[in-house]
């Protein structure tokens, strides 16, 4: 079996999901990190992932936990949809459909520039 770099992107997509949604994939809200994580990890890796199941992404930026991504709701939605699309591509069942790290870096760098510009505008 040949392992390619893009195989690791599913895990990277989960990390992005956790950052974006402020949730932990393997822990129920209010659950015990150690107990929940071990049992759910085994289930996810052995059962859910091969069946194509992935964590749920909110439909819109307004559905995210935590503060808004940006003060402008339209810009926040555009930013969120771009990151959401990146996460979904990281989770593709076909490794060839997953983004290359160069593309991931480009999308995330663009998102960071957008956020920095938004904060600079609010500071003035």
Quickly list its features.
124 residues, 4 helices, 56% helix
Quick structural gist:
With 124 residues, this protein is an all-alpha fold.
How would you classify the quaternary structure? single chain
Question: Into how many domains do the coordinates divide?
Answer: 1
The percent of residues in helical segments reads 55-70%
Main sheet makeup: none
Number of helices: 4
In whole angstroms, the N-to-C terminal distance is 55 Å
CA radius of gyration is 16 Å
The shape, in one word, is: globular
Which spans of ≥5 residues are poorly predicted at pLDDT below 50? none
If you had to describe this structure to a student in words, what would you say it looks like?
It is a single chain. The protein has 124 residues and is an all-alpha fold. It has one domain. It is built from 4 helices and no strands. Helix 1 packs antiparallel against helix 3 and helix 3 runs antiparallel to helix 4. The longest helix has 23 residues. It is globular, with a radius of gyration of 16 Å. The chain starts with 8 loop residues before the first helix and ends with a helix. 15% of the residues are buried.
């Amino acid at each position: 079996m040949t392992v390619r770099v893009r195989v690791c992107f599913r895990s990277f997509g989960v990390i992005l999901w956790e950052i974006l949604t402020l949730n932990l994939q393997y822990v129920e809200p209010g659950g015990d990190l150690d107990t929940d994580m071990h049992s759910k990890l085994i289930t996810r890796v052995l059962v859910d992932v091969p069946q194509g199941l992935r964590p749920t992404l909110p439909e819109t930026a307004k559905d995210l936990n935590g503060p808004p991504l940006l003060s402008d709701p339209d810009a926040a939605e555009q930013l969120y949809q771009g990151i959401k699309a990146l996460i979904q591509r990281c989770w593709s069942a076909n490794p060839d459909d997953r983004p290359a790290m160069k593309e991931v870096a480009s999308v995330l760098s663009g998102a960071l520039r957008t956020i920095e510009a938004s904060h600079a505008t609010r500071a003035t």
